[in-house]
Amino acid sequence: MSEFPRKKSIHTRLRHVWDSYINWGVHHPEQRRVLAQLQVSGMLSKESIEAGSAPFAEMQNMIRDAIDGHIFRTDVPIELISKMLGSLAEATMDLIMLKPVTAKKYRDGGFAIYWAGISRK
């Protein structure tokens, strides 16, 4: 969440989160694999999970504010909005790793699909 644009629009802030996560995953593939394995291993304590989630509290608050402000759909639970960001970002990272020359299209397209799915029309 470094350089998080707190004073900008929800769209700009969420795009910052998206781009930061994609950049991290593409530049740290080994750490990304280890994190994925740990998440499904059942080996992480509740305390470890909470500590790892702490930096994302601001993002959760941002999503909650966007739901309350009717920027995001109100019929979709906040947990699904958060989980979908991770899932679409992971798919985007996988594609970028397979075809780096198309990275910008994948990054922009993935975010466009995510935004279209959570924002009110």
Please tag this protein with its features.
121 residues, mainly alpha, Tetracycline Repressor, domain 2, 0% strand
> Into which percentage range does the β-strand content fall?
under 5%
Low-confidence stretches: none
Give the domain tally.
Answer: 1
Measured as a percent range, the helix fraction is: over 70%
Order of helices and strands: HHHHHH
Category by helix and strand content: mainly alpha
What would you call the shape?
globular
Q: CATH architecture, please?
A: Orthogonal Bundle
The CATH homologous superfamily name equals Tetracycline Repressor, domain 2
Radius of gyration: 15 Å
At the fold tier of CATH, the topology name is: Tetracycline Repressor, domain 2
Q: Roughly what is the average pLDDT, rounded to an integer?
A: 87
CATH hierarchy class name: Mainly Alpha
Largest sheet: none
Query: So how many helices?
Result: 6
Query: How far do the termini sit from each other?
Result: 28 Å
Strand tally is: 0
